[in-house]
Amino acid sequence: MRQRPAHLLLVLPLASLALVACDAPVPGEPGSAEASPSASSSVVVDDGETTGYSFASDNCGFEVTRTTPPERIVTIKSTMTDVVAALGAADRLVGVAYQDGEISVEDPVASGEVALGAEQDLAATLAGVPVLADRWPSQESVLDLEPDLVMAGWESTFLPDYIGHRDELEELGITTFVAPIACEFPPYLIEPVTFEDVFAQITEIGALLGLPEEAGRVVTELRDQLAAGEVHAAEVNDSLPGGDEATALWWSSGIDVPYVGAGEGVPQMLLDSVGLTNIAEEPPSAAGHPCPGRRPPRPTRPTSCSSTRPGTRRRTRRRSSPPTR
């Protein structure tokens, strides 16, 4: 049986939580895992019970506010599902969509065991959660579940062709939240993405769910894994004969027109963290070659190496009314 290269094994424990989006980071101070400066929260926990809660965030230019923790969550993108599960809140999921793969239910971080400090039967919990669609669900299928929070891995999820505008959903009492590292336009777009940005995102989502302590435990564990992985990666690189350079290609999807990871996103960050040189780091200049890096959310052929995905557009900032749930 062919074994995975040692470099790749170092990436895998962190990849599922890091790949919330392959675009841009949330702002954060280097060396910390504080939530975005545009977010504020207050959570009071007494004997394991949340007795006081408030959350406010300027989320990709959209004001998100809540006065109670969300209890009915729909996730649209597998990596958002991963974070909810890792924080020990999988039992709040009422529907999921656009799931790229299965969660590693036996992994202590992914299952919520690290967050909650107790063994979790994540497989049983997820077995009762309906999958609304392989890709984007219809607005009707989401509304039928009566969620109080919809979490998306891309801003384009909230276009009229998909789930609908965020302000319209807010008027129905549904909070919307986009992975902060998926924000597409300045000042919310910051490149390149770093692990600190990933940790800050987990921290902010923990605040949104009313689980700040759980998020802190997850971030601490991931920091330990990252530190150990970087040390081992250096040892492996030093052992390569004759100063050879370890190279890799991050293949995302597609055969006729492949999409690969490069540029300023999370795949490049993960490859850098284990000392692998990305052979697609520089976009090919020959006509007809696909652009490495970002994968557009719509099933269309790429036409350029633009950082803006097809199907997205700039929007003016809208202030929404607080959720009623």
Structural summary, described in words:
By secondary structure, this protein is of the alpha/beta class. The chain contains nine helices and twelve strands. Helix 7 (195-209) runs antiparallel to helix 8. The chain is globular, with a radius of gyration of 20 Å.
Helices and strands: which structural class?
A: alpha/beta
**In percent terms, what proportion of residues is strand?**
15-25%
Portion of residues in helices? 25-40%
Number of strands: 12
Tell me the number of helical segments per DSSP (H or I, 4 or more residues long).
Answer: 9
**Oligomeric state of the chains in view:** single chain
- Rg: 20 Å
Order of helices and strands: HEEEEHEHHEHEHEHHEEEHE
Low-confidence stretches: 1-13, 19-33, 285-325
Q: How far apart lie the N and C ends?
A: 53 Å
Main β-sheet, spatial strand arrangement: 6-5-4-7-8
Global shape: globular
Give a brief rundown of this model:
The protein has 325 residues and is α/β, with parallel strands linked by helices. Helices cover 29% and strands 17% of the residues. The longest helix has 28 residues.
SSE layout and pairing:
Blueprint: H1 6-18, E1 39-46, E2 49-59, E3 62-66, E4 73-76, H2 78-86, E5 93-97, H3 113-116, H4 122-127, E6 131-133, H5 139-143, E7 149-152, H6 166-171, E8 175-178, H7 195-209, H8 212-239, E9 247-248, E10 250-253, E11 259-261, H9 266-273, E12 277-278
Helix pairs in contact: 1-8, 1-9, 7-8
